[in-house]
Amino acid sequence: MEDLDIATLQKRLVDFAAARDWERFHTPKNLAMALMVEASELAEIFQWLTPEQSADVMSDPEKAFRVRDEVADVLAYLLQLASACEVDVLAALADKIERNELRFPMGREERKARG
Amino acid sequence: MEDLDIATLQKRLVDFAAARDWERFHTPKNLAMALMVEASELAEIFQWLTPEQSADVMSDPEKAFRVRDEVADVLAYLLQLASACEVDVLAALADKIERNELRFPMGREERKARG
Amino acid sequence: MEDLDIATLQKRLVDFAAARDWERFHTPKNLAMALMVEASELAEIFQWLTPEQSADVMSDPEKAFRVRDEVADVLAYLLQLASACEVDVLAALADKIERNELRFPMGREERKARG
Amino acid sequence: MEDLDIATLQKRLVDFAAARDWERFHTPKNLAMALMVEASELAEIFQWLTPEQSADVMSDPEKAFRVRDEVADVLAYLLQLASACEVDVLAALADKIERNELRFPMGREERKARG
């Protein structure tokens, strides 16, 4: 399905907002704020759960729907913010993973254990 | 560059955590909390800026680096949470866009204006 | 009205939770998470507003009710977290103000301008 | 100590910002955003802790300092936002507790158990 490509979805989100004349609301500041609010709605699902209940969250269909829905909302605002700031999200993430590999090198024993 | 595919990056993140024995920390609850903390660090960059300054944030190299870095951190925790909950982020987003298109239909005049 | 004392309100909140057997949910971690979620619901009221609209938020009765309600929720979780961690919120704030006065001293001209 | 009164501390915070000419930054929107960022810094202390470790957080002097410091920051922004919106925080909280007592009444058995 050709839609399931991140660049295509990102373009659909930007076009969707433009078609509704929402661009004037979509400053980087407002999008960052909306992203934080959505991340918080995702966290709310988990706030009173034990670690064990949280690991099992997707076995409850209503909670599973909410998790999936809020994950989509977070990604939607992240991609809109990235468009507004002209950040390539996949390149930014690849760079970050490389920085983290230097920052948290695996110990010798861990490497040995993994061959 | 073969790394710049979302599924490949998601797998690298999961392997990175597993190699460091961080899986026991990575319950969905903790990952949702970490995601919210990172979204908040991204918002912090913008908190005292005017709308105009926020639109121009990427012209400051130090702020531009931070935006890119925090966007990567948000995406990293979102993908790790999605892995832990077995959510396909791109399918979830495509579904959400479709629900939003039904929820916020374009008015007749907007359609006309856009041909 | 004797209720309008912070220590009395804090005790009422703790008793309220204990009476409903909610203490097992009220770990410092969960209360910190709930506090963040409530702070986010407060921020949500402002997310698409211009600075000018935000300054005028209380002139809209429905928004004014929400602001007041979410301010109360944030304070409620903050006081419950403080009880769980045995933090005296007013002493902590007084100490912080003193540290900030050392960290951000007023310039000579500002002092002069203010006599 | 006369400083340890919420109204006095609130006035000191407002005067502190005014003396530094920070009022132009302190729109309700920006203060709500800063409040959320501080709530998130408080939550960050707990993000990888187990429920048991979180209950014991104050036994670690460095973490105890951070908890106390971030609790103060959250309260500081909450009081500044309340000043900007002319919300009486203690009255708002008392009202909310009353609404919650109607919304979550104690069951007959709970009342009996408590005499």
Automatic annotation (TrEMBL), chains A, B, C, D:
Residues in a coiled coil are none
Q: Name one Pfam family in it.
A: MazG-like
Q: InterPro entries, alphabetically? A: dCTP_Pyrophosphatase, DCTPP
Superkingdom of source:
Bacteria
**Protein name, please?**
Nucleotide pyrophosphohydrolase
Recorded source organism is Catenulispora subtropica
